[in-house]
């Protein structure tokens, strides 16, 4: 029945879009978003999953950059987005109650064949255009092929070893995000398991679902694990059905892993990757010893090396920190319309991750730091440059600098330092309101300090190292 919905939507999308064109989605976690996801693939169109919580400013850039032929959007967003979308000239299909549900009444028949059938899609064809943060303050679209996604599912399955036709996987992560796709939607389809989808992450809803649906595989993030451990109902929740817990999107504190295993009796298998890597590069596995603090070993058919930070050409020995580079069949084809940044990230078949790590003698990878100016807030990549530009667009702001600071719940949060113009008055609440109108919640500074001046280096650049020390 759902296959029929995919087929029919796929036919419509193919008719509405140019050959090989892109189709964007602005959908919350739902069965509709899953059907739409695979309808894009069936139609041979490149899916552009966008964050439905984004502001109009954030969406405008990604919609202009991706230039989709069609947008599938949640009808709840229509009052806010109808006018901007019309101005952009984007053909929009509204999805939701009383408008259109893609999988409301699943049937039992076989999808139509013949003239309505969709042609097979070449493995090398583009499947996803996934946006990730950009050091310039503008997001970058990552081009991923069907083959890259397929291979990454198989690679991950080789180390996590799910049970075919038996798993019940809880998806509390957003399905527009690479981690939610990989460890929720694709994992469930790959093992023919049941996917239990939560509209959003709420601790009570997670604990209810674990027991009600006898969940067997629980993908989470450090923020989710920390929050659940501190919930009053955690100790009385029955976790006996769960045999695998996974973590990704940001670094998992060792103390959290230890507390979790002591309480639940199941370890958290931590992995590492990024959108440009389809997205998984390494994972701890139940098939091998777990080394606490490590993100595991490279997936099958994946090579990981540590190279010097200056030129990235000298491979460093075990136990030495340097930039992580990787190669394998799951890597992106490049950034959309950004040849210079693609050439910097992909060199001689290697993806230069911008992360700093080291390998031990057994090939286990440890993440030590980040080379690029990026903050991971609750599993989401945030580039301070974008937040600084939003702050500096306020008429009362002279200068702004944003850094990441440690946070026990989200891993990191943003701390903004702002210098006001001498002839203007403004307070912190007004600046936070300005951010709220231009940035999704996780990009907004958790802390905002008004300062008389920002520290500068000898070449008159803002000294973020000094700001981190001050923070």
Please describe the structure with a list of short key phrases separated by commas or semicolons.
29% helix; 471 residues; alpha/beta; 26% strand; globular; 24 strands; 5-stranded mixed sheet
Overall description:
The chain has 471 residues and is of the alpha/beta class. Helix content is 29%, strand content 26%. The protein is built from 13 helices and 24 strands. The strands form seven sheets. The chain has a five-stranded mixed beta sheet. Strands 14, 15, 17, 18 and 19 form a five-stranded antiparallel beta sheet that branches. It has a four-stranded parallel beta sheet with strand order 2-1-3-4, sandwiched between helices.
Summarize the structure.
The protein is of the alpha/beta class. It contains 13 helices and 24 strands. It starts with a helix and ends with a helix.
Secondary structure elements and pairings:
Layout: H1 2-16, E1 22-26, H2 31-42, E2 46-49, H3 56-66, E3 70-74, H4 78-88, E4 91-95, E5 126-132, E6 140-145, H5 146-160, E7 168-171, H6 178-190, E8 194-197, H7 203-212, E9 217-220, H8 222-229, E10 244-247, H9 254-264, E11 268-273, E12 280-283, E13 297-298, E14 303-307, E15 322-327, E16 334-335, H10 339-345, E17 346-347, E18 350-359, E19 365-370, E20 375-377, E21 380-382, H11 384-392, E22 397-407, E23 411-420, H12 428-436, E24 447-450, H13 464-470
Parallel strand pairs: 1-2, 1-3, 3-4, 7-8, 9-10, 10-11, 23-24
Antiparallel strand pairs: 5-6, 6-16, 11-12, 12-13, 14-15, 15-18, 17-18, 18-19, 20-21, 22-23
